[in-house]
Design goal:
single chain, 349 residues, 434 Repressor (Amino-terminal Domain), Rossmann fold, 12 helices, 12 strands
């Protein structure tokens, strides 16, 4: 049987081949719903599948977006990838996913492979302080959108980026705990060597100082993980809770770098015979779906992930299709504190 072509779809749908091409490339916003429906029915009836190789030869790039995240072992990045895929498909692009563990060599290898496949746009979620490992590809024409990684002092390339105000993330969490009377507040994270983690530590310290509380470096825990701990967040949160809550003067509240670390804090507190929030209040970051169903439901700082991913894809597609005229830069969204049952008023002197 001969391969079905765009012309075949156009003939069955009673439209021009260019109309079919517009649908396949996500340019159907001005099309009548009845026309769009006929084209989709013809595609389904004939079993048409786009020839990606032919499209790459014609345009010079594949209709694919790369997505490189730290690890989908963290459900936040699982839903992040899902939302990126939904937004990409709506714009006529597919997604190839890689987990980098925030390893710059692995990120470069992934990026080089994707470039070889004709991919000209990649979204990175690692928030690494340095982006030197990608400079040569960016110089060749790779378009990059980074999550939680605005341009840093010393960067030799400027990129698009998007994310929440991470200083504000932990200011919100810390102020909430301060309002509940907590003064000894712990901070648990994996290695604090990414832009977003550094910003969250800064927000935590700033909020304490504004309240007249001197930050205690002994209450900041970042473990001894050789990597960034994304795939072992619960275990690291548990270890951090063991260390901080076993001190002679333990914290009465803990802010975790994300929700998965917070769940580890739950486990660590339970190991020590402590209850959340009666003995220790806990705040996470991200507001993943599990935050609402654990016991007690987790107080956390919500990231507007649907907006973040949509805007990231729209910006990248705009660069690829040369329709975006905005200067390269960082888009900032606002976080929101979600108060649940894991925080309570401090009853200790």
């Amino acid at each position: 049987m001969d391969k079905v072509t765009i012309a075949d779809v156009a003939r069955v749908a009673r439209v021009s081949p260019s109309s079919v091409s517009n649908v396949l490339n996500g340019r159907s916003e001005r099309m009548k719903p009845s026309t769009l429906e006929r084209i989709q029915q013809a595609i389904d009836q004939l079993g048409y599948t786009p020839n990606l190789a032919a499209r790459q030869l014609k345009t010079g790039h594949a209709p694919i977006i790369g997505l490189i995240v730290p690890s989908v072992a963290n459900p936040f990045y699982g839903i992040f990838a899902r939302r990126i895929e939904e937004a990409a498909l709506a714009n006529g692009y597919q997604v190839l996913l890689g987990n980098s563990d925030r390893n710059p060599d692995r990120e470069r290898q992934y990026a080089e492979e994707l470039w070889g496949y004709g991919v000209r746009g990649i979204i990175f979620g690692s928030s690494l302080v340095q982006f030197t490992h990608l400079e040569s590809l960016i110089a060749k024409g790779l378009h990059v959108v980074a999550f939680d990684r605005p341009t840093q002092q010393g960067d030799r390339v400027i990129i698009d980026s998007i994310g929440v105000d991470n200083v504000q993330v932990t200011r919100l969490a810390t102020k909430h705990l301060l309002a509940l009377g907590h003064r000894r507040i712990g901070f648990i994270s994996g290695p604090i060597r990414t832009v977003n983690r550094l910003d969250r530590l800064e927000g935590f310290r700033a909020a304490l100082q504004e309240a007249g509380v001197e930050p205690d470096p002994q209450l900041v825990w970042e473990g001894v993980a050789s990597n960034f701990g994304d795939a072992a967040a619960v275990d690291l949160g548990r270890q951090g809770a063991h260390d901080l809550l076993s001190k002679t003067h333990p914290p009465t509240a803990i802010i975790a770098i994300n929700d998965m670390y917070a769940f580890g804090v739950y486990a660590g507190a339970r190991d020590l015979g402590l209850n959340v929030p009666e003995d220790v209040s806990v705040v996470g970051v991200d507001d993943i779906v599990l935050a609402e169903v654990v016991q007690p439901p987790l107080t956390t700082v919500h990231q507007p992930i649907t907006d973040i991913t949509r805007l990231a894809v729209e910006r990248l597609v705009g660069r690829l299709q040369e329709t975006c005229t905005e200067p390269l830069g960082h888009q900032v969204l606002s976080p929101k504190l979600i108060v649940r049952a894991s925080t309570a008023r401090c009853l200790q002197n």
